[in-house]
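REQUEST ID: PR-0412
SUBMITTED BY: lab tech R.K.
PRIORITY: routine
TASK: structure prediction, single protein chain
INPUT:
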Amino acid sequence: MKLHQAFVTLGIRSRVKPKITINRVKIPIDCTHLVDEIREDGTSVLKMEQILTSARIPTILEEIRPKTIIYTHYVEGIVDQLKKAIEAKGWSVGFHIGGNKSGRESFINGSTDVLIASSAMAVGVDGFQRVCDRLILNIPPWTSAELEQLEGRINRQGQIHDTLTIIFPVTFGTDGEDYWSWDEGRLARLQNKQTIADAAVDGVMPEGQLRTEAQAFRDLRKWLDRLKDGEQKTIVRPKIFVPLPDVDDSDVKRRVVKYGDFSRMNARWNTSYSSTTFQRLQNNPEEWMQYHTLYQNVRKTWEIIPFEETIKWLEERSNLIVGDFGCGEAIIAKSLSDKHTIHSFDYIALNDSVTECDISKVPLEDSELDVAVFNLSLMGLNSKDYLQEAVRTLKLDGQLWIYETETHIKDVDDFIRQLEFLGLNIIENYVNWKFRYIRAIKSKEIAIS
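STATUS: complete
OUTPUT:
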């Protein structure tokens, strides 16, 4: 609020009135019949959204008019469902998504009735306002800033209609008196602009910490687990914390005997496929906690700590979408979540800001990230898959950051060639203390089989 007071004293801000009337319509969709399928097969946000999309489609079809845009934040296994159902009703369909923007021109200037779009639509695109006054959000963005950007593609100079209709199909389920709705949670986040920026600029105090996507998904999974076989008890999961306590010498020795020292643990992770390591750590999170306990200790003597170098660079910038691949303690998110949108991924989630996954396949759309970061996390026999995944999720001209121990990259020239093969231009490549630092820019889209 001190920052807001300074703005009021020293600055002015132009509040632009909405150019047209915006009607936001929520349409409830009962998907109680899908609870079992969601519980069994909806093991990630993406898989759950694939199932929920099937429930939203009948409502979406009823709301389509000529020149309707259907936005979906995730695309894999979703756009195909939408396209098939929409075309079956006789509408023509085009795309404006990460890897396929072929439908934009025919939607604006031609005969395409419906455009299926993703986050690629939200930035740097003009012309939609000339033909479209109807937006259906199959899967909305996760932040209010992203939604405002999306609406801004239509609610802008040149809009020829008096009214813009934005439709939110809202799925929900019930069990007796219990009620759950994944979509309501998303909308609550979008409708409550509770950020540091709002407090500073508008003087609006946050009412509490907003639920992250990972946290909301975990809450829903717990609710579904309690319903299984009529059980109404909470599933007990081990508490994740770092560092592990060192007050019990016998327990410290037990962990060393079981997992080895830091070098041995690194060797094990480096000589396993990520899918194997992910499953092993899911079954026994203590190994992950022990690794990061040792990592905390060894880095105390380092002259350079890679994640700190990344934080320094990001602190000088704002409003970037960052993917932290192998985030560990999620210190980047903890330090910079007020300035950037940070997607943190690791085998085990230390807190609710982290998405647990195998980082060779993260739940992000194509071309979503401005920056992809690997700080000592290219560990595993299939680490090339991590890099391919980072490139997939990077926007054109997005940046890839890599910090690795100099000894980890055996053949630097070959490693650079691999990056260039993925469509990356190397901007910086040098040794910083005992670490190899590489910064590259995604200069072109490469089809990778």
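NOTES: The domain at 16-202 is CATH 3.40.50.300 (Rossmann fold).
REVIEWED BY: pending
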